[in-house]
Design goal:
Layout: H1 2-23, H2 30-41, E1 51-53, E2 59-64, E3 72-77, E4 80-81, E5 91-92, H3 95-106, E6 111-113, H4 118-128, H5 135-145, H6 160-180, H7 212-220, H8 223-236, H9 239-246, H10 253-260, H11 262-271, H12 275-299, H13 301-306
Antiparallel strand pairs: 1-6, 2-3, 3-4, 3-5
Helix pairs in contact: 2-12, 4-8, 5-7, 5-8, 8-9, 8-12, 9-10
Length: 316
Amino acid sequence: MSGILNLNRLQLLSNLSKQFNNLKVLNFSPIAQKQQQQLLSTTSSSGNRKERKRFYKQVSISEAFSNTRPKHYEINLDKRKLKTPGGNLFSVDNEMLGQMISFEWQSQKEYIKQYTMHLTSLVNTCIDNPGKLNKEILMSSLNDYLQTDTILYFDSNSIAKLDYLQETKWRPLVDWFNEKFPDLKLSIKKEIDDEVNFDFGKTEQFRPDMNSFTKYLDKNFDLNTLIAFNYITECLKSTILTVALLERKIQSVEEACNLAVLEQQHQYDQWGKVEWYHDINEAELRSRVSAAVLFIYLSNSSKYLVKKNLSYANQH
C-alpha cells in the first residue's frame, strides 16, 4: 500500500513540476541561468553577509505527523532536524517545497551562504514571525502600498523613449489592475506634486471587506502566503506587478523584474552600467522573487495550479 502511495505522490510532484514549467515561473534563458549562478557564487562574505562552515554531509526530508498538525515535512541535516533562527522546528506542508529547500542546503559547498537560500529564509520568517505580523496588518500595508506603487509614477521629464516604454509597458498593467479591482480607480501620476491620498481605502478600524483588493487578499492568501506576497511587493516595489505575476498576466519572473526596473534599465542603455555590480543585483532580484512565487504556488497549489485565475470576494 505504501508503494502505491509513494507512486501517487511522485506522480503528483511530477505533474506539479510540469505545470511550473508551463507557467514559466523561472523563465530564464540558459545564458541568463548560467550567468546568475556564476554571479551569486562569486558574492563574498564580506560586509554584513555571514557564512558558516558546512557542518553536515547529507540532507534528507522526512514525513512527520503530530496531534496538532497534519502531515508535514521536516528537513534533516545528517541526523539532526533543521531548526529556525528562533529555535522552532523547521517544517513545511508541501513535499515539493520541502525537496526544494533540501536542495538549497545540499547545494551549499564548503561554507553555508544563507543569503542565497531564499526559500529557507522565507520559511524561517513564516515560522518565527519576528515582526508579529497578522493578516490584517499585511492586508492594510499592501493596500497602502498601492498609492506609492512604482508603475503609477511616470517620469514627466523623461525623453521620448522612456515615455514610450512607460506608456506601452506600464499603463496596460495599470488598466488591467483597474479592471480587476474597479472600485480602486488607481490613476497614473506624471507630476511630482500630484496629490497622494495616504488614507486611501482606510477606515478607523481595518476591515478586510472594505474594497475588492483586500477581499482578494483575504480570500486567496493565508498568513504565510501573504508574507511571501508582501516580500515580492517589496522586491518589485509594486503591488500591481505582484498581482499581475501571480495571475499570469505577466508570464515570467524575469519579465516582472525587468518591468520593475524599467527606468533603471533605460538609464543603463543610455549611459552604461557597472556590469558586475548591476548584474549581481539583477540576479539576486530574480532569485528572491522566484523563491517567493514558488512558495506561494506550492503553498496554495489548489488555487494556483488547478484554477486558471484567482478569484476575489466581490459578493456582498
